[in-house]
Amino acid sequence: MVSSTDRRSQKPRTRRLTKKQRAARREWQVRGVILAAIVGIVGMTGAIIAATPPAPVLPDVASVSVNPSAVPEMTVDGYDHEQLVNAAVIIDVGNQLGLGPRDQAIAVMTAMGESSLRNIDYGDWETSQRTNPDGSPTSSLGLFQQQDWWGTRDERLDPPTSAHLFYAALLRKVPDRDALEPTVVAHLVQVNSDEQHYAKYWESAVAVVAALAQP
Fold first, then answer.
1. pTM for the predicted model, two decimal places
2. Cross-strand pairs, 131
3. Degrees (nearest 5) of the Cα angle 187, 55, 79?
């Protein structure tokens, strides 16, 4: 006869699982691992989405009105105060002409691609000896890197005037611009050798126009 003390000291019997039960257990273990992995991936994806800022959008207005002399000290997408003032001039001229935010952003994008929004008094000939198709030296100047046929040197180096020249060509050359990609519109105005040259500046141009439109 085994005493109660002996019974307590005895090790409990280990229940042996059948082959079917062992397979079922393995299946549930695998399912648990997969589920944990899915939960982890979903959590990481959510964190990435939450950390990614939304793409900038153009203001929902007839035309963006900006006072170039009142641009605050700030940077937008890497563009400093001097560059933002030049962008504000371009936007302001577009507003005076009654053009909408998309046209204003296309003009800003073009100046980004041509001069990085700096009113420089030299161009492709001085930096890389680039010539025109007829072999003559390029004569590009200013925010839009406009050549001699755009206007006088003083006109091309005056930001408001150079912006007027750009918008006048935009209206004349690209009446169907709303149906075209922004970079294609800029290319048709500027006659750049690569119509995709301006594409990489579009999002920055939208961000700048949106930021400067804030009261």
1. 0.74
2. 137
3. 65
Residue that the structure tokens 């959590």 belong to: 43
Locus of tokens 């002399």: 69
Residue 78: both structure tokens together = 């890497």
Is residue 209 within 8 Å of residue 60, measured between CB atoms?
Answer: no
The phi and psi torsions of 66 (rounded to 5 degrees) equal -135, 140
Chain CA centroid to CA 158, Å? 27
What tokens appear for 31 in the block? 């399912």
CA 184 to chain centroid? 17
What is the chain's percent helix, strand, coil content, to nearest 5?
A: 60, 5, 40
Q: Round to whole Å and give the CA distance between 76 and 31.
A: 48
Instruction: Count each helix (H run) and each strand (E run) in the chain, helices first.
Output: 9, 0
36-84 pLDDT, tens digit each: 555 555 555 454 444 677 888 999 999 999 999 999 999 999 999 999 9
How many Cβ atoms are within 10 Å of 184's Cβ, its own excluded?
Answer: 17
Are 57 and 207 in contact by the 8 Å Cβ rule? The answer is no
Number of Cβ within 10 Å of residue 21's Cβ equals: 11
Give CA 75 to chain center in angstroms: 15
**151 Cβ neighbours under 8 A, 6+ residues apart:** 161, 162, 165
